[in-house]
């Protein structure tokens, strides 16, 4: 694709975003309250329960809060980590079921962004580097990396409701 084609394509997408924003994004003062109370949990798939626990609890310092049998698949585990603010990150394993490797697909998971205090961000960054986890940093407050099964995570030092210093909530 030529530079001119890329510029025209980018311009079309920008115009579409502007139209959607103008039509659907209500000013804060007139925005209704959400019908939701918050994220109860997001559930991912784990290929190895113990390896996942070591990564999320020991490395990222998200306490394991429960480990039970999955009610929908005999022998499968359903387990939860505290990610703060009353929110949980959950996992299932499916022993004996070939779920294949992690893939990003339309309608699937792109990444999970978890807010941490700036000092904790630096501490966890050091732990991830020391553990040999490959990460990419952005804007000195955001780092992306993958868990042992390939799910992309982001640790962001911005407060909840902010993104790179701008309010998004």
From TrEMBL:
Source domain of life is: Bacteria
Q: Which InterPro entries match?
A: Glyas_Bleomycin-R_OHBP_Dase, Glyas_Fos-R_dOase_dom, GlyoxalaseI/FosfomycinResist, VOC_core
VOC domain span = 38-169
Task: Please report the name of this protein according to its UniProt entry.
Answer: VOC family protein
């Amino acid at each position: 694709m030529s530079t001119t084609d890329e510029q025209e394509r980018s311009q079309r997408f920008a115009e579409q975003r502007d139209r959607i924003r103008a039509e659907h994004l209500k000013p804060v003062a007139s925005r209704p309250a959400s019908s939701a109370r918050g994220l109860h949990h997001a559930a991912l798939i784990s290929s190895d329960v113990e390896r996942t626990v070591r990564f999320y609890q020991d490395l990222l310092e998200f306490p394991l809060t429960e480990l039970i049998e999955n009610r929908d698949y005999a022998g499968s585990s359903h387990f939860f980590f505290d990610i703060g603010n009353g929110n949980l990150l959950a996992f299932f394993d499916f022993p004996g079921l070939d779920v294949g490797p992690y893939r990003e697909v339309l309608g699937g998971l792109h990444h999970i962004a978890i807010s941490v205090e700036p000092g904790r961000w630096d501490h966890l960054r050091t732990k991830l580097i020391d553990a040999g986890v490959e990460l990419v940093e952005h804007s000195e407050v955001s780092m992306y990396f993958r868990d042992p099964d390939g799910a992309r995570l982001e640790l962001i030092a911005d407060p909840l409701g902010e993104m790179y210093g701008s309010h998004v909530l």
